[in-house]
Amino acid sequence: MTLGTTATPLRVAIIGSGPSAFYAAEHYLKSGLAVEIDMFERLPTPYGLVRGGVAPDHPKIKTVTKVYDRIAANPNFHFYGNVEFGRDLTIDDLRAHYHQVVFGVGAQTDRRMGIPGEDLLGSHPATEFVGWYNAHPDYRELQFDLSKEKVAVIGNGNVAMDVARILASTYDELVKTDIADYALEALKASNVKDIYIIGRRGPAQAAYTNPELKELGELHDADVIVSPETAELDPLSSEYVLTSGDRDAERNTQTLMRYSTQTPAGKSKRIHMLFLLSPTALFGTENVEAIELVKNELYKADDGTLRPRATSEKITLPIDLVFRSIGYKGVALPGVPFDERGGVIPNVKGRILNADKSVAVGEYAVGWIKRGPSGIIGTNKPDSQETIDQALEDAKAGSSFTPSAPSRAAVEGVLRERGVDFISFAEWQKLDEAEVANGTASGRPRVKFSRVDDMLNVVRAAREPATGD
């Protein structure tokens, strides 16, 4: 049997609907083979972190969804929203209906600091705060005590910068965005005054991009505080900036130096940039009251990279609220191999590996669950292409599942038998239209639905036939 012909199309299930999942679908559809793509998403809404992770004040980044909409318009692509892998469909179900399955589920949780006091009230993963202000249903009901004045954001990546910037933004800046309506009101009443962004390495090693750093200086009511001592580079970092050709490091250090020479304007909020510090403990009775930090120094490792190591010197800062942003981490999926330490599905170029290191026939991984949480949205395109090249090679070699019921009708029959109210892409577009209409009514780009039941109610209402005389 030859897969990929009109008589026997290659049937593929993609689990997840973020960038890596859509780029995987695109590469299959451009392969020249006859392919049927079914994409399954746990939520009624697609796009993964583009919807639930990209900061609301970064609308240009979200326009990438237009690319995904074009992919979804292909007649050989079908979207199934509100379908959870492991609950509504199992790996055995997929093997019975598809020749291949691709996991593009991202990294759904965060890495812990592993320090005393981490579970005190007021200590949160940044992932939860980001999901909360982006109206993600998983985080909609969370509470963050924004009556506090002093906040520590642990980490030096773009997510840490997003968290700090959202906390420091005014209502007028946020009301122009698609931030969750309840988050907008909570932030309007916020009492946060001092935000400390704390990085374990030096200014030249920060992982955030220069545009993110510059944005802090453009906020209406927040001063960026960088001491001259903080902006000054140690000899190893100076050498790195001069010789490495790392333009991001050069730009970041220049921007920090400029901040260090500015006199604070006396704005109501202050963003303090701190480097070469690692948290060692959070103190408090029930709530966070202080953070202990150890001072680090940089050294050159055997591989030539600059790494931090702790000194004997420690400092303590009074802090009321902590957001840790030290990396995302994948979550194990039922029946799928998983590397607990790495937080990824073990694989070679996207081909999933079993526990005995043998290749799992017909199973593939893309995106963060494949490589870990690194890169930007565009990084996922070549990553997905690499995986799908392997999958296509396997399909041509006949190394795939042998499904007993390879049809969409059979899959939909299983879902209906199990009472799953699955959402098509056209139905998601109705939901999208409703959000935009709600936003227009209040002078905003959109007002997101943040509860799955509310989303489903909109879709169900759109399904009902019009009645009249």
Compute the CA-based radius of gyration: 24 Å
| Ends distance | 55 Å
* Helix-strand category: alpha/beta
Biggest sheet statistics: 7 strands, mixed
Query: Please, what is the average pLDDT?
Result: 95
Task: Give the percentage of residues in beta strands.
Answer: 15-25%
How does the overall form come out from the CA principal axes?
Answer: globular
Strand order of the largest sheet: 3-2-1-4-18-17-16
Helix coverage percent: 25-40%
Unreliable spans are none
- Can you count the beta strands? 18
Tally of helical runs: 18
Keywords:
469 residues, alpha/beta, seven-stranded mixed β-sheet, 18 helices, 18 strands
Written overview of the protein:
The protein is an alpha/beta fold and about 475 residues long. It has 18 helices and 18 strands. The protein has helices spanning about 20-30, 50, 60, 65-70, 90-95, 125-135, 160-170, 170-175, 180-190, 210-215, 230, 235-245, 245-260, 370, 380-395, 410-415, 425-440, 450-465; strands at about 10-15, 35-40, 75-80, 100-105, 110, 125, 150-155, 195-200, 220-225, 270-275, 275-285, 290-300, 305-320, 320-325, 330, 345-350, 350-355, 360-365. Strands 3-2-1-4-18-17-16 form a seven-stranded mixed sheet, with helices on both faces. Strands 6-14-7-8-10-9 form a six-stranded parallel sheet. A three-stranded antiparallel sheet has the order 11-12-13, with no helix packed on it. Helix 6 (about 125-135) packs across helix 7 and helix 7 runs parallel beside helix 10 (about 210-215).
